[in-house]
Structures are given as C-alpha cells and as structure tokens.
Amino acid sequence: MAIHALSKVELSYHKGKIGELTPDSKRLWGEMTVTRMLCHLRTSIEQSIDPNAKVKIITPPIIRDVVGWLLFDVLTNWPKGMFKSPKELTPETDKDFAEEKRLLFDAMDRFASAAEKKPDERHVSPVLGSITLKRWARAHGVHLNHHFRQFGLL
Predict the structure, then answer these.
(1) Mind listing the pLDDT tens digit for each residue in 94-107?
(2) What mean pLDDT is predicted for residues 59-75?
(3) Which DSSP string corresponds to 44-107?
C-alpha cells in the first residue's frame, strides 16, 4: 500500500478519504468515535507545527531512530489496537463532526504549507523526538492511513 505523505501534492488524497466519512461512520476496532478520531488527527498535526507545543517524548533516545524507522518506513500497516496514543493526543471534543472536519482540513493545509516552505525545520514528536517537517509529513501519512483503515476507508 502506498504511503501518501501529508504534503501539498497529497492533500486532495487525504481530504478525499476524510470526505468519505460521515458522522455515523463506524470504527472497525478501537474506542474513538469518528469525531474524536478527527480531533485526534487534528491535535497531532497542530502539535507538529506548533513551535511552542509542550511535547512529552515517550520513547528513550536510544531507540527513537529504530522505532521511527520500523513504524514509519518498514511496518507502516500497524496492527489493530497495537498502539494507544498518549492522552494529550486523544482529547475529548465538544465540537461536532462537521466542525472537527473543518478544523482538521485547516490544520492539514497549514501543515502542508509549512512543510513545503521549511521542510528542514524541526519540531518535536512524542515518539520520534526532534524531527524535520519533511519527516513529520511521512509520519502523518502513515498515521492517517492507519485511521483510514480503522474506519474502513482502505
């Protein structure tokens, strides 16, 4: 399966997949509703472009490169329920489906723009530590695909 990085070129792919979701879309596994999943994706993308984000790194330095390589380059089809996101990245939302989708699209646009302008700018990931926006684009693509599978879009 092709990985579509979150980039200006790939925005229409990602937005098209998200556009297939409805407020009644059912997950195939996990606990998040479709609206909370959109909020989760938005939170992750916003964090990746916020230079002031307070990010708790959850992997020890010695294994960051190995974990990053395995999860985002080799084993990109993550098993169902294998990972549980940190609570900071799975907030509850008081917004409805349409508003979360709109906010997610806005975050995706802002990320793609930032990554195109400054691909070598570094921001902190809870799993990968300090990485470039180019690397974040790949990580977001794998992460989006995971949730597309979770909701039966792939």
Answers:
(1) 999 999 999 999 99
(2) 68
(3) HHHHHH-TT------S-HHHHHHHHHIIIII--SPPTT-----GGGS----S-HHHHHHHHHHH
